[in-house]
Amino acid sequence: MGSTKSMKSRWIRVLTSVKWCVVGILAISVYAQPPGLQKSIVAPSSYLTPGALPPNAREYLPALGKRLQVPGSERVTLIGTATDAKGTGPAQFIWELPGNLRLDRQTSPGGPLVYQYGAKGPAAGTPQADADLIESLASDSHEAFLVSFAEKTGHRLLATHLRVPTGSPGPYQGPFYDVFEVLGPVAAAGNSIRQKWYFFDDSTRLLAKTRYLIRRNGADITVECQYSNWTTQQGQTYPRQIRRTENGTAVFTLTVNQGVISPAVGDGIFNGH
Questions:
Q1: How far is it, in rounded angstroms, from Cα 189 to Cα 209?
Q2: Measuring CA to CA, which residue among 97, 94, 90 is closest to residue 71?
Q3: Which residue has the higher pLDDT, 96 or 108?
Q4: pLDDT tens across 70-93, in order?
Q5: CA 132 to chain centre
Q6: Burial of 148 (0-12, 13-18, 19+ CB in 10 A)
Q7: What is the pTM of this model?
Q8: Under 8 Å CB-to-CB from 143, ≥6 apart: which residues?
Q9: Is the pLDDT of residue 188 over 80?
């Protein structure tokens, strides 16, 4: 009798182990699918194709990899440290096609900065510094530049292979830029009309900085959002540092220690805007 119960218990444990092995294999098979084969929650119209861009902008699309073009790698999670007016601490920034974002900072324990693509500005009551940061994270990036071609904005290629004087004697050793001007309403800034200049490294075709003017308290402020230390992971490219400056002074810096590329997920982390 005791032997029968013992054998039955053993079989139950075996079957339970087999069940969880099968579940694990199924889970691996789902998440191990290459980009393009996973079911996506992103609307098909959100993906970009070279044909949707003017000829002079198409080469900036593959510079990021395929994450704006096919399902499977729509979400980029950047983990590291953030420095702002309140100090320096751990931070995590998530961007997801077509332009949802979330920033969690230890220096701002009151709650994350969240923005859902298409919303007319930050949530009511957002402090001005955080609202400005949302604009930069939502509309000043390489991804935002490409997505903006589907929006009500005007685009113009101003220069190619442009060099910026460094003031140093001798042959020019600085970078060369392709510069685009974008003019139109920016949803993340409450549909304020902005005239922005996007500077792309003309050898890598990756965004180096975005520059524009804003008016605050009767004074013009020069904003520059800088992207540097680009790296490639799983065939997708992202910056390892994002910095916003105002009149040359850094007001926010995200230094990335780890990047994770993953499919879009309906986990609600962008809700609450």
A1: 19
A2: 97
A3: 96
A4: 999 999 999 999 999 999 999 999
A5: 16
A6: buried
A7: 0.83
A8: 64, 68, 95, 97, 99
A9: yes
CA distances from 227 to 38, 49, 87, 198, 246 (A): 30, 24, 21, 11, 15
Greatest CA separation found in the chain?
95
The structure tokens listed for 264 are 């879009």
Helices (H) and strands (E) counted in the chain, each on its own, are 3, 13
Closest CA to 111 of 102, 99, 119: 102
pLDDT of residue 199 exceeding 60: yes
Q: Write the DSSP string, 47-98.
A: S--GGGS-GGGGGGSGGG-STTTSTT--EEEEEEEEEETTEEEEEEEEEETT
Q: Torsions phi, psi of 126, nearest 5?
A: -70, 130
Cβ-contact 77, 100 below 8 angstroms: no
pLDDT value at residue 22: 31
Q: Which two tokens stand for residue 178?
A: 């392709």
